[in-house]
Amino acid sequence: MLTEAYYKFMAIINSPVFLRGFFDNRFYLILLVIILTRFKYTTYRSMWMSALINIPGTLLHETMHYLVGLVLNARPCNFTVFPTRGEDGNYVMGSVGFRNVTFYNAVPAAMAPLLLLPLGFYVNRHLLPLLPPTFVNYVLYVLLQTIIIENAVPSRADFRVAGMYVTGVIMYLFLALLIFLSF
Fold first, then answer.
1. Are strands 95-98 and 91-92 parallel, antiparallel or unpaired?
2. How many of the other CB atoms lie within 10 Å of CB of 123?
3. Residue 96's beta-bridge partner residues?
4. What does pLDDT average to in each consecutive run of 10 residues of the chain (183 residues)?
C-alpha cells in the first residue's frame, strides 16, 4: 500500500502538466530556494550538522582561493574545509593560508570565489538541458545552483585580505574600468 502511494505520488509530480506548471512559475523556484536556505540555517544549532551541510560549498569556495593563489604565486600553505573556532568565538567553515600575499595577488586570490559564477552559468546553460525534466532533477539542480552561487560570494575575511594592499585594489579597479570601457 505504501509503495502504491509512492508510485502514485511520483506519477503526479512527474506528469508533464505538473512539471510545466512548476518549471514555468518563478514563484516556486524562489520558494524552493528559501526552503533550502531555511533548512541550511536550522542546521547551525549543531556545528557538525552545519559543517556537513556546508562542506560541499566550502570545498568549492576554498578551492577557488587555493587555485588562484597557486597560479598567482601567493603560495598556498594550508587548506581546510572543516570548521574551527575563530578568535572571535564564531566558527570558520574553511580557510586557505598563503605565504606570499602581495599587491598583485591579494585581490584576485581573495575574490577568487567569484569565479564560481561562470560555473553556475555553465551548469544552467549546458548541463540542465541534458537532464530529464523530473521534479527530483529540478530540486537537485536548484540545490546545486544554490550551493554554487551562495559560495561564490566572498566572505568578510576575503574582503579584508583584498583590501590589504591599496595599490593592488587601485590597479584592479583601473583594469576593470579599462575592460568595461572597451565594451
1. unpaired
2. 14
3. 79
4. 86 85 83 83 73 86 97 94 77 89 96 96 91 87 90 93 93 93 86
3-state DSSP assignment of residue 26: helix
Q: List the grid coordinates of 100.
A: 606570499
Q: Which residues pair with 92 in a beta bridge?
A: 84
User: What H or E segment, with its residue span, contains residue 143?
Assistant: helix 135-150
pTM tops 0.70, yes or no: yes
Alpha carbons 14 and 104: distance in angstroms, whole number: 51
Residues 6 or more apart whose Cβ sits within 8 Å of residue 52 = 43
How many angstroms separate the CA atoms of 78 and 101, rounded?
A: 14
Q: Report which DSSP code applies to 123.
A: I
- For 140-160, give one letter per residue: b (16+ CB within 10 A) or e: ebbebbbbbbbbbebbeebee
3-state secondary structure 57-117: HHHHHHHHHHHHHHHCCCCEEEEECCCEECCCCCEECCEEEECCCCCCCHHHHHCHHHHHH
